[in-house]
Records
---
Amino acid sequence: MIKVGKEIQDHKLKNESSAELIVKQVYFDQTLRQATYVEVEKKEISNEKDAVPDHHADEMLHSIQASGGQFTPDNYPVTDDDRKERDANETMIVSFSQLSWQNDGYLLRESQDEIQSTVLADQCSNKSLNKAEILTESGEELGKVKEIVIDKSGRVEGFELSEGFLSDFLSSDQPFLKLDEAVKYQHGKIIVPTDYHHTIKKA
């Protein structure tokens, strides 16, 4: 089992380029059955040395010398040959299906189709699901989502719940709500059958 908040969110994706890819958000479909998209911050740092000569460098040197000044490292004219470091940051949306689990983390495949952020309009983010209330159909609160647990393919296995009533009920470790067809997501809350607390077990 893979915990989204602890093992994916804000973690680096393995990739075949020199870029640093950090997961900023994971999204799920409205049924909460499957991880669908990943929002990734791409940071690429490169050092480049331009080969274009600066034709004004000599003029600047002559001007310094003609005015009685001396050439020192402090007043040496900056040219296009100087080393530059570029930091380029961008955010991109990729399909979760483009990730593959390897050892202890996800690898992002090299070739990516650009996905517009509009696809996220009807998706549920890990951020929005975190601390979402879990209620029975009769209105009883069973707890709140502490962690979303998925398998390697992104299929949601269930939710680790925050401590509270159910911790006393189980008198032990973190309670775990297994996801099945009886679990519904409505208006930002997770709804389960009235007697569903009997199926909640220790994580």
---
Amino acid sequence: MPLGGTAKKLQKVAEMAEDVYKKLNELREQVVEVRETVNETKSRVDRLEAENAEQRAILEAIAEEQGVDLDAAIAQAHISEAEEDAAGDETETVADDASESDADTSSDAATDEA
């Protein structure tokens, strides 16, 4: 009977090995897909960066032709963006404070009623 037990154990190990092999092949396929996606994304990013550089050169040429101080315009854009971000943060803080105040008032009212 010991041979029957060994045969079952060997069969179980063989099945486990097949499962591991299948999973390994699936993992290989996933890695290949990820590599392809990364390469495609890199190509897209490279293309977009080149287009961005071309557009910047065109905008700089137009700005120079129109007598626009590009550095001042960029600085003003950054200032405006920072002010908008600060205003958004302030609005969120005020809204959070109002929510907390409303919650405090509600809990005070509930306490008073009890």
---
Amino acid sequence: MSRPDVPAADPFGADPLHAGMATRRAVLGDAHVDRARAATDPLDAPFQELITRGAWGTVWSRDTISRRERSMITVALLAALGHDEELAMHCRATARTGASRDDICEALLHVAVYAGVPAANRAIKIARSVFAELEESRNGSEGASRDD
């Protein structure tokens, strides 16, 4: 069943690499994806294609749940598994997925109950730091535009 708030994707007809790159850019931002692509070398080129096709071109491009919901699930899984760098990246991505700080708080409460308090505690520290960084960046850019 497709949802009106989620861009439709045709997992059987669309090229998952093309769909994946579009979704990856929409969620993580052009700057992040451009940096990742610029740093790609022969060792990780197959990996970059795999995640673009597999994660972004199939799972993240499905229209059955919203990007907000996928974002919450992803944050919870990364927190539970202790993947701190990926967790920080996906906390930054909430600015593009529509997941609010309250949504992330709820996801991390689930982590505390189902994966353990230490995992949630660590994840909350990471999320707090990322959100402070985003707020500082937002305030800095607003201040710069006001002074121009």
---
Amino acid sequence: MSTETETGDQHGSRTGDQTGDPVLVGVDFDLIPWEKWQKPGAEGRVKLAYTQGLRVRLMELPAGFDEHEWCLRGHQGYVLQGEFTIHFEDRSVPCRPGMGFVIPDGEKHRSQGAEGEPTVVYVVDKVVPTA
């Protein structure tokens, strides 16, 4: 039997464990404001939530975005709208709505959006500590 209790906040439902530390369970993106998101070649917007050492994002990038820099952070995600391609050093993988993707840590990659409509993706990755 669990002793967890539920409370709500502006970012979704939370469930506390026996130590009293809150754990984000549900993310209500409707309540999270859009923030500007920018990388060389890709300017868009993002809604962010953090829980259990993870960063959870809803991202919207314009049609035709083209990231210039390689990324080494692993990501998992799901495509909601638009089409884009994930480029690796040795291959490219097209992604379309309804597809998920899993990129492991250390796998050099960058993304490029198709022309026509914005790309909207749900993305989860580990929080990287800053020094």
